[in-house]
Amino acid sequence: MRAGLDKDPHAVARMFDGVARRYDLTNTLISAGRDRRWRHLTRKALDLRAGELVLDVAAGTGVSTAELSRSGAHCVAADFSLGMLRAGGHRALPRIAADALRLPFADEAFDAVTISFGLRNVLDPDLALREMARVTRPGGRIVVCEFSTPTWRPWRVLYQRYLMRALPAVASRVSSNPDAYRYLAESITAWPDQRALAERITGTGWADVEWRNVTGGIVALHHAVKRAAAVDREAAAAAERAAAAERAAAGPAAAKRDDDVDREDVEFPP
Ligand SMILES: C[S@@+](CC[C@H](N)C(=O)[O-])C[C@H]1O[C@@H](n2cnc3c(N)ncnc32)[C@H](O)[C@@H]1O
């Protein structure tokens, strides 16, 4: 894939197929080894218990899933790049070829879900968040580990320079596809900041969203809990009450018009 923010799923999968072989090594080099800490903190934030079932979406080579497995939970790696899944073949993990936008799992199948450095690459992040909510049991957890916006201005400026100048230079030496790392820099710059991502997570079936900045906000870990069905029912009931109040405020004329429609429907079926 050429530089630029074309997130066409075929192009994204091809791009990751192309960098798969050296993905883990390149990541560790361009993050100066910080990637290990980010993964460790993601596992801690998920607060996994032995025996729980966890889905790692956009798991790539499974490097993120392998860290989660240290908790004793059963961890499943899902990704749509066969190249990435194959490159992680040496890891003893259940691996599934799956699109984050149409997860091949039953509703409420998992205790927790997570996505590390994947949501930014997905064509429709809101849909991916909703899919992850669908496959998580009520009360289950999500952690999104993603690049974010450094909070201290001088650090932010320095980081922007690194992203736009140094990172492509480093990647051109170590990666088989330097364009992929120009895309990385651009996609990070275009990605919502901590608060904006929290709002998107809240709007897609999750509650109690909190985030933690890591490495000065270069990465943020967003944690949330799957809203219970009762909360959704309460929201629907509140919407119905508001609509009824609006109808009542509009007066009997409006109520009569509604009656007329009902009667017409009964007396003159199509
Ligand atoms: C930067 S890698 C992250 C891999 C791993 N989670 C990690 O922490 O290193 C992003 C991954 O997202 C995957 N991806 C992007 N869009 C996807 C989608 N719609 N469905 C499944 N995987 C997707 C890519 O194939 C790639 O393996």
Report on this model:
This protein is of the alpha/beta class and 270 residues long. The protein has two domains: 9-227, Vaccinia Virus protein VP39 (Rossmann fold, 3-Layer(aba) Sandwich); 233-267. The chain contains eleven helices and seven strands. The chain has helices spanning 9-19, 23-30, 34-46, 63-69, 82-87, 125-134, 153-174, 178-190, 194-202, 229-250, 252-267, and strands at 53-57, 74-79, 95-97, 110-116, 136-147, 206-214, 219-226. Strands 3-2-1-4-5-7-6 form a seven-stranded mixed β-sheet, sandwiched between helices. Strand 1, helix 4 and strand 2 form a beta-alpha-beta unit. Helix 7 (153-174) runs antiparallel to helix 8 (178-190). The model is unreliable at 255-270 (pLDDT under 50). Bound molecules: S-adenosylmethionine (SAM). Residues 9, 12-13, 16, 58-60, 63-64, 79-81, 84, 99-101, 116-118, 121-122 line the site of S-adenosylmethionine (SAM).
Compact overview of the structure:
By secondary structure, the protein is of the alpha/beta class. It has helices spanning 9-19, 23-30, 34-46, 63-69, 82-87, 125-134, 153-174, 178-190, 194-202, 229-250, 252-267; strands at residues 53-57, 74-79, 95-97, 110-116, 136-147, 206-214, 219-226.
How would you characterize the largest beta sheet? 7 strands, mixed
CATH class of the largest domain: Alpha Beta
Question: What is the level-2 CATH architecture name of the largest domain?
Answer: 3-Layer(aba) Sandwich
Percentage beta strand? 15-25%
Q: What's the mean pLDDT score?
A: 88
Radius of gyration: 23 Å
Strand ordering within the main sheet: 3-2-1-4-5-7-6
- Classified in CATH, the superfamily of the largest domain is Vaccinia Virus protein VP39
- Ligands, ions, cofactors: S-adenosylmethionine
- CATH topology-level name of the largest domain: Rossmann fold
The total beta strand count reads: 7
Low-confidence stretches: 255-270
Calculate the terminal CA-CA distance, rounded to whole Å.
54 Å
Name the helix and strand elements from N-terminus to C-terminus, one letter apiece. Answer: HHHEHEHEEHEHHHEEHH
Count of the separate structural domains: 2
Number of helices: 11
Question: Percent of residues in helical segments?
Answer: 40-55%
| Class by alpha and beta content | alpha/beta
> What is the overall shape?
globular
